[in-house]
Every structure is written in structure tokens, then in C-alpha cells.
């Protein structure tokens, strides 16, 4: 691209590569000059304050100037290479990136007042999307916490069920359970016998109240808790 085209493109895009490069070079020179100027001021005779201050100050000044010149030569070479690299690569505008016909529309778009309102509307839209994203993130976080609690409860339940299943599958439990199954008919017979004896005792009580048969009452109720002792023993083992 010719130099006139590059200048027009830079003007259309609102930038100036030489101005940027010169600003950086001037800033580096200012820092370098200020640093060595400070060293020279600190090495002045009044700053040293000794009998041979003038001689020492002159020697120090010569040393500082020599170092300054050495640093300046190195910096000049490095910054010259940096300047060439920036102009050739960093600020090189590709061919056809901006044509002359695009200069006027580009300038108008940059100076168009409506662009501010468009940017404001886009900013409002982005803020709304950000708020929605934050709300969705909070909801997802709550759902994640709920799922973690459910998973913890499920793990505890699975562990308890595994322990219970282990007990059910143990030989001692199977033996006790079989004993319980076997004793149920005996328990039912004992209950039926106790029920009959209770009924007989009630009849004896009625007969005693009517006829005063004390002797029959004394021998009427013979049901005892020993009748269910077999069942109790099995239940204790269970």
C-alpha cells in the first residue's frame, strides 16, 4: 500500500503510528535523562560534603557520563529496532482493508451522534442479560445444593439398608426367625387355652356371687404366665 493510502487509512481509523512511536521514544529518553541527572545531582560537591568533594564529584560525574553514553547507545539501537518492528508489523494495514470509498462513511459513523444511543441500548441489554445470568446461576446453585443433600440422604439410606440386609442374611437371624415361625402355632394354642380359663374364671366368679361357692373360686382360675414362657424365650432371642 502506498504512503498516501496508509495516511488516509490511519486518519479514517483515528490513529497515527508515527505519533505513537515518537511518544514512546520521547518517554524513554525522559526516563533515561532523569535517572542520570539525579545521579549527577547526588554526586555534586555540596551533596558529598567532604574535603576532597570537588575532586570526587568530578570523578563521579565522568563515570556517570560514561555510563550514560553507554546506556544511550544500547537504548538507541534497541529502540530503533523496536520502531522498525512496530511500523512494519504492528501498525501495518493490510491491502484493501480500507478503501478510499470507505473513508467518508467511516468518518460519519464515528461522528454520528446516534451511535451513543445505540451503545447505551446495547449496554442496557448486556446488563439485563448479566442479571438474568446471575439469577439463573443462583437457581442452579440452589438446585445443586438440593441434589447434593438428596444424594447424601440416598447414600445414608443405602448404607442402612445394606447393614439391615446383612443382619437379615446372617445365620443367627435366619435361625431365630425360623424358631419364631415354629412357635407361632404354640403361642396361638396357649392363647386359646388362657382364653378358655379366663372365661371359666368369669363363670366361677358369677357362680360365687350368686351361690357363695368359695371353694370353686379357689380352684377355678389356673391360667399362669408360664403358659407363654416358651414364646417369650424365643422373642428374647429374636
UniProtKB/TrEMBL annotation:
Q: What is its main location?
A: nucleus
Listed InterPro entries: Centromere_Mis12
| Source organism, top-level taxon | Eukaryota
Q: Which Pfam families match?
A: Mis12
Any one of the GO BP annotations: cell division
Q: Can you list the GO cellular component terms from the UniProt entry?
A: MIS12/MIND type complex; nucleus
Q: What is this protein called?
A: Uncharacterized protein
Which source organism does the UniProt entry give?
Answer: Oryza glumipatula
